[in-house]
Specification:
The structure holds two protein chains of two kinds. By secondary structure, chain A is of the alpha+beta class. Chain A has four helices and four strands, in the order H-E-E-E-E-H-H-H. In chain A, helix 3 packs across helix 4. Chain B contains 17 helices and 14 strands. In chain B, the strands form two sheets. In chain B, strands 3-2-1-4-5-6-7-8 form an eight-stranded mixed β-sheet, with helices on both faces. The chains are: A alpha+beta, B alpha/beta. Chain A: Belongs to the ubiquitin-conjugating enzyme family.
Chain lengths: 158, 574
């Protein structure tokens, strides 16, 4: 693994350990050799207070490439997560995570999870990633509301 | 003595020639640059050369790797290069290894035995590894690289000059999943889609089982069903690969249905050119093979469909024996598939069409290699190595080759190490400890007690411990297989630079080490330090001046480093 990638992730881990936004968690996952794999983090992102996403805590996996921080991590909700900008596989489509758009090497894990939290209630209809949530959001707001509420319930136990 | 060696004696003196003759050098890589380098090392009379390369010889190597010829195809590069180069000078001792240089058997101890090292590598990962081993063992490294007409030889004298990692190297560009899946805007986006998404979904390793949560209610059943369908349709296609109707289903799904689904998300196309679902003309797979050989011209839609149908037949017939197939630019079946599928997608999105030849270059990330550049760069590498052996440290230069009419070469004095560098800018030591030595003992007995740390993180290729992660404290060095490896100790208070410890088995003992403060810390704090303070002064670090290497200034264009990386954009696009 590139030393730059590893050391930056260690720094991110340290910064997160010492201070992180309330209600969030983010931690490298265990690897089979005994230790934490800094290239894959499990995060939990709470729905923002005062939005219809409030009450749920949504698991997201952050996968950092060898070329991080030059390249952004790939962020994934559970497969089948209901949101206009989430692919059926769970992959998040967000300009902050796009190397050709807003990604900059200085962006921190903290900014990433806050960015994903903001995306929950502010979908970008110009970059839809699944038809189901997109069509509801655009044309059937009642159905959209109902589906989001179902999903809040599903993730409320975490 | 050969005329080359007589010339060297006149130029460098008897002592230098003797040092060249008695030196033991390592050459990593026996490809385009490696073949040139070993020829020159042998002719110049270097006494003992160890050559490492994992690869075997391919037909496409023969236009520039002149030690190899037709009869050597499929044989190991390192061994053939040894045998052929030895004929130039039978007095030279060449030891060849068909191995990966990153293998654990090439230990710190092994690297230590060399007087100097040449890199003739094509990928950043191996370069970084050799660089780190050379810095850790204080072994000079001459890193040669080319990309077409561009070339570079970087001189790395550990502790005195900057190392490979002291500067950032540009990473190959990646594309976001949305660009590839939904909104391609360049032909390369279609090519990446065909290669990394469509091809690997159909012929690559099987995808993991669907992880859809089954906790559905009456309310959301229909919607979840739709989502599941969107996710699984390609998997369904894969199951039907052998059905006689497969090609029709594939074309219908990929180039019509999926495009209509994208179009249904109308907001996406407000400011973008909307795709047009394919209108499928008459085509037949029996023309495919003939058309596929016409690789210099752009195919029509019907022709692309023919090639696609034919390549699918060829790939499907291979699946029984091979289970899964991965894309390889030199595997015609896979290349035909990607060339045809990408052009069909490009025509749907109104992007430029490409010939199969052009697709091969893009999909295979081919950077044309030029034999002349390789030869020049190798010559530069050997010249710098000779200067080093002749003791001419002040004359050492890192040299770049440019495609420029007025100045082909620019050279710069190697800069001093970057204090922020994670390879050059760290403290290093070695320690011995028995197999049952625990991480907790390492932290408490060595790092806190002997080296005066308060809180630390410990890292190898993974995080082993930090103040909030204590699972491994009672685990031993043996359990975590940490012997003959580097572990990195990071000061939790960010005051000291990182410490790299190389651990070998033995009774507990650590070599004395001074751990300098971080550069930003030392500037702020240096005036406050009592000279008798136990914290070591940063001046203990060697600088370019100490090494007799003048200044750290460099001429402007010499800053760019060429990175020849046959990088694969192996991104997971699901």
């Amino acid at each position: 693994m590139s030393s730059l990638c590893l050391s930056r992730l260690q720094q991110e881990r340290k910064n997160w350990r010492k201070d992180h936004p309330f209600g969030f968690s983010a931690k490298p996952v265990k690897d089979e050799k005994g230790g934490l794999n800094l290239q894959v983090w499990q995060a939990r992102i709470p729905g923002k207070k005062g939005t219809q996403w409030e009450g749920g805590v949504y698991p997201v996996v952050l996968e950092f490439p060898q070329e991080y921080p030059t390249r952004p991590p790939k962020c994934k909700f559970d497969q089948g997560f209901y949101h206009p900008n989430v692919y059926p596989s769970g992959t998040v489509c967000l300009s902050l995570l796009n190397e050709s758009q807003d990604w900059r090497p200085a962006i921190t894990v903290r900014q990433i999870v806050l960015g994903i939290q903001a995306l929950l209630d502010e979908p970008n209809i110009h970059s839809p990633a699944q038809t189901t949530a997109y069509n509801h959001y655009k044309s059937h707001p009642d159905a959209y509301k109902r589906m989001v509420a179902e999903q809040v319930k599903k993730y409320a136990d975490y | 003595m050969s005329s080359t060696q007589r010339g060297l004696r006149t130029l460098l003196g008897e002592n230098a020639v003797k040092r060249i003759r008695t030196s033991k050098v390592l050459l990593v890589g026996a490809g385009g640059i490696g073949c040139e380098l070993i020829k020159e090392l042998v002719v110049a009379g270097f006494g003992e050369i160890h050559l490492v390369d994992l690869d075997t010889i391919d037909l496409s190597n023969l236009n520039r790797q002149f030690l190899f010829s037709q009869q050597h195809i499929k044989k190991p590069k390192a061994l053939v290069a040894r045998d052929v180069a030895k004929e130039f000078n039978p007095n030279v001792n060449i030891v060849a290894y068909q191995d990966n240089i990153m293998d654990a058997k090439f230990s710190v101890k092994w690297f230590e035995s060399f007087d100097l090292v040449f890199n003739a590598l094509d990928n950043a990962q191996a370069r970084q590894h050799v660089n780190k081993m050379c810095v850790a063992t204080n072994t000079p490294l001459f890193d040669c690289g080319t990309a077409g007409f561009l070339g570079q030889c970087q001189v790395i004298i550990p502790g005195k000059t900057e190392c490979y990692d002291c500067r950032e190297h540009p990473a190959p560009k990646s594309f976001a999943v949305c660009t590839i899946r939904s909104t391609p805007s360049l032909p390369i986006h279609s090519i990446v889609w065909a290669k990394s998404f469509l091809f690997s979904l159909l012929f690559g390793p099987p995808a993991a089982e669907s992880q859809f949560d089954e906790t559905e209610t009456d309310d959301n059943r229909e919607e979840l069903e739709k989502l599941r369908k969107e996710q699984n349709e390609l998997g369904d296609l894969r199951e039907n690969l052998t059905s006689p109707d497969f090609m029709n289903k594939l074309v219908h799904k990929i180039f019509m249905e999926d495009i209509k689904r994208l179009l249904s998300m109308d907001a996406m196309w407000e400011n973008r050119r909307a795709p047009v679902p394919l209108e499928v003309p008459e085509y037949s797979s029996k023309d495919g093979q003939t058309l596929a050989s016409q690789d210099q011209r752009v195919w029509t839609t019907a022709e692309s469909l023919s090639v696609l149908a034919d390549s699918v037949e060829r790939l499907v017939s291979r699946l029984e024996a091979e289970k899964e197939i991965s894309f390889d630019k030199d595997d015609e079946d896979t290349l035909d598939f990607v060339a045809a599928a990408s052009n069909l997608r490009s025509s749907i999105f109104g992007l430029g069409l490409k010939s199969k030849f052009a697709v091969k270059e893009i999909a295979g990330n081919i950077i044309p290699a030029i034999a002349t550049t390789n030869a020049i760069v190798s010559g530069l590498g050997v010249i710098e190595a000779m200067k080093y052996l002749a003791g001419l440290d002040a004359d050492l230069r890192s040299v770049n080759i440019w495609r420029s009419a007025d100045r082909v070469f620019t050279s710069e004095k190697p800069a001093a190490p970057n204090p922020e560098c994670l390879v050059s800018g760290v403290a290093r030591t070695t320690m011995t400890a028995p197999a049952d030595f625990t991480i907790n003992q390492l932290i408490e007995d060595i790092l806190k007690l002997k080296l005066g740390y308060s809180e630390v993180s410990i890292l190898s290729d993974r995080l082993l411990a930090d103040p909030d992660y204590d699972d491994n404290l009672e685990k031993t060095l043996q359990e975590l297989s940490l012997h003959d490896k580097f572990v990195t100790v990071i000061d939790d208070d960010d005051e000291r630079v990182n410490l790299e410890i190389y651990i070998t088995e033995g009774p507990v003992n650590i070599e004395q080490v001074e751990i300098p403060l971080r550069p930003n810390q030392s500037e702020a704090d240096s005036e406050l330090l009592d000279p008798a303070d136990s914290i070591p002064p940063i001046s203990s670090k060697r600088t370019a001046q100490d090494a007799g290497l003048p200044g750290t200034t460099s001429s402007a264009p010499g800053q760019t480093f060429v990175d020849l990386t046959e990088q694969d954009d192996a991104i997971d696009l699901t």
